[in-house]
Structures are given as structure tokens and as C-alpha cells.
Amino acid sequence: MLAQLPPALQKLHLPLRLKLWDGNQFDLGPEPSVTIVVKDPQLVAEFTHPSLDLLGTAFVEGKLELEGSVKEVIRVCDELSQALVEEEDTRPTRIHHDKEIDAASISYHYDLSNEFYKLWLDKDMAYSCGYFETGEETLDEAQIAKFRLLCRKLRLKPGEYLLDVGCGWGGLARFAAREYGVKVFGITLSKEQLALGRERVKAEGLQDKVDLQLLDYRDLPQDGRFDKIVSVGMFEHVGHANLNEYCNILFNAVREGGLVMNHGITAKHTDGRPVGRGAGDFIDRYVFPNGELPHLSMITAEISEAGLEVVDVESLRLHYARTLDHWSQRLENNLEAAAKMVPEKTLRIWRLYLAGCAYAFAHGWINIDQILATKPHADGSIELPPTRADIYR
Fold first, then answer.
1. Would you give the DSSP letter of residue 364?
2. Which residues on adjacent β-strands are paired with residue 312?
3. How far apart are CA 126 and CA 132, in angstroms?
4. Which residue, of 38, 56, 276, 379, has the greatest Cβ tally within 10 A?
């Protein structure tokens, strides 16, 4: 049996069992909590360099099976990868983004199935980081708390006009209109999101306050008509090369004295290169094609160059780790229902993706930041209180 395994594997001490296609098995340590069932004999040789991309791809393509809780699978597979694979210090390849490419990428991810997303998201279907003020909140409570935090940071007032860039299924737009009395113009590139979002706007009787449209951010009006702008979980799709254009469009869309909130995932390294020994490659191939994560310093620099003044930055990394734990567990609790909504390969992708991202945020591979900026008046004055105390009252 030992002769069938690469020598590098024989030296490891992990709670991992390898079960081969011929029924033989080998424990890499005592009391294995995870079993990798190898179905393709060619995979054994590749286990000398088990990147997370290789392991994830093999699972998605049915070349191996994973036994154990998905959370434990991610932990043990990362330890296996750490032991045998070095983190590559490679500079990221810049991706070309245009309207057609971005529309196709968004459709691939978000037009998957509204019913599938309903299985594991909160009731408002907020597909972004929740806010756990005490740590004891349910997922629904944490997402409402996130909506409230965003609205408070934007200092929304009745009658103001809010632009929601990447509005998703419209949960934040409806909350802002309902609870803060603002008018909202929300845009998305997902036809499935738009259809359900409009349905929910109508169900709540908010048609006179919330207008959701299928629109690319590059086609937004540039006449400063909006009092406030919020962008949640969207700029990850913009691309490094287009960040300057994105920030300039937001600058031109908001009035002088107005506020812009950019809430999105940021990279660990200043040059935006991915971490996780192939985890980023897996996500780009199967989950978010053409996605690019800028570092906090990169996006704040572009915001500033556009003429906006950054006035507040807050990391919610640990909040997103907790949010993803909720999502992952809810999906795991509904695997039978999920299997009827999406193909088996898709479900395999999402099981790894949600649990893997929870692990990535918990371990600092990626971050998420809320960046609040203002468009100063011509004389440099701004419309903000001197402290952030009002946000937390």
C-alpha cells in the first residue's frame, strides 16, 4: 500500500484518510476526520503538489469524493496543501473588462437560480457581509443590521435620492426607502435578480420610491443628480484597469456635498495578487469569472484621484467570515433541496466556495472594507458631523 503513495504524503501527520479506487486506504494521521476518496488513479501522482485549486477541481469534476463536514474538509485540505505547496509570489494578470464581458460574468454567477439562493440567504436575500453587533444575531438580524449601518453612515434623510450600484435583489433599496424615506434608483446586470427585485418592490407597495433597472454602471447619468450613492459587493467585478473609470463615474453621479459608500472585498497584498495556493484560480474558473480584488490602498487611491475625499474606512472581515459560516451551514442543511435546483457539479462548486470563503476571511486571506467618501463643495466644505458618534446612537 505504501508504495502506491508519493513519499511526501507518507511523512505527513494529518487527520486525513486517503481511500483509493481499488478499496485500499491509508491514514496520514490518527483519528482521521476527513476522507478523500480517489476515483482517478492519475490523481495520486498529483498529490505531490495538492494545491487547493487541484483538489477543488478534482472534486468538482468528480475525480474524487470528500467525506466529513465541509468545514473540516476545507481545514484539513488547507493543511495538506500548506505542507506540500509553496505560496507563489506571482503578479496578477490584469483582465480586460467591457460591458459584454461583465454582463456575461454577472449572468453566469447571479442568474443561476433565485430559488437556490433563497435556500441559504436571509429573507431579504442580501448577498453580502452581514453585521454582527453582538455576535448572537441570526443571519436575518445581521443583514438588517448591515442595512441600518450603511444607511446611518450615509446619513440618509427623507426625500433624498439614493443610487444603489449593484442592487442585487433589492433588499437594501427597499429597506432604505421603507425605513429612511428616500427614493432609490438601483441597477443590476442580472435579469433574474431584477425580476425578483421588482416583484418584491411591488409586493411592498414601494413602486413610487424604488426604481430597479438593468443597467451597466458605465451608463449612469453624470449630472450629479444623486444625493447619496451606495455600492455593495459590486466593485469586485469592475477590474483593476477600470477602477479609475468606476470612481470617476461615481464622482460625477453624486452632487456636491453628497456621500459615496463603497462596500466590497479587498485583497491582502497591495498589488492584488491572490493568496491561498490556488484558491483564487478555483474561484475565477468556477465561481466569479473575471473578478479582481484590489487592495484597500488601491481603491482608496482611485477614489481620491477621482476627486472624492475618503472620510471613513471600516474592515468587516470577521463579520464576513461569520456570514459565510451561516450561508455554508444553511446550504449543507438543504443539500437535498439544492440538488433539485442546480446540477450536481454546480452544487459541488458552491459547497466548496461558501465554506472555503468563510475559511479565507477567518484566516485573513482576503478582507472586506466599507469606504465612505464625500464629494466636497467647491470651497472644500463637507456635510458631515465632526465625529462618527451619530452612526452608533
1. T
2. 372
3. 14
4. 56
Q: Grid coordinates standing for 335?
A: 443539500
CB atoms within 10 A of CB 214: 13
- Cα dihedral 203, 195, 218, 242, rounded to 10, equals 110
d(CA 186, CA 232): 11
User: Which residues on neighbouring strands pair with residue 64, listed in sequence order?
Assistant: 38
Location of C-alpha cell 494578470 = 93
Sign of CA dihedral 47, 53, 56, 62: negative
pLDDT in tens, 121-171: 999 999 999 999 999 999 999 999 999 999 999 999 999 999 999 999 999
Q: Is 76 exposed, middle or buried (0-12, 13-18, 19+ CB in 10 A)?
A: buried
Sort strands 16-19 and 34-38 into parallel, antiparallel or unpaired: parallel
Pairing of strands 25-27, 16-19: antiparallel
| Contact between residue 201 and residue 234 where contact means Cβ atoms under 8 Å apart | no
Q: What is the pTM of this model?
A: 0.91
Indicate which residues carry an active-site annotation.
357
Residues 6+ apart with CB under 8 A from 393: none
- Please name the amino acid found at residue 342: V
**181-204 residue pLDDT tens:** 999 999 999 999 999 999 999 999
End-to-end CA distance of the chain: 65
Mean pLDDT by 10 residues, the chain (393 residues): 58 88 87 92 82 91 93 92 74 63 60 89 96 96 98 98 97 98 96 96 98 97 98 92 96 98 94 76 78 92 98 97 97 96 92 94 95 97 94 86
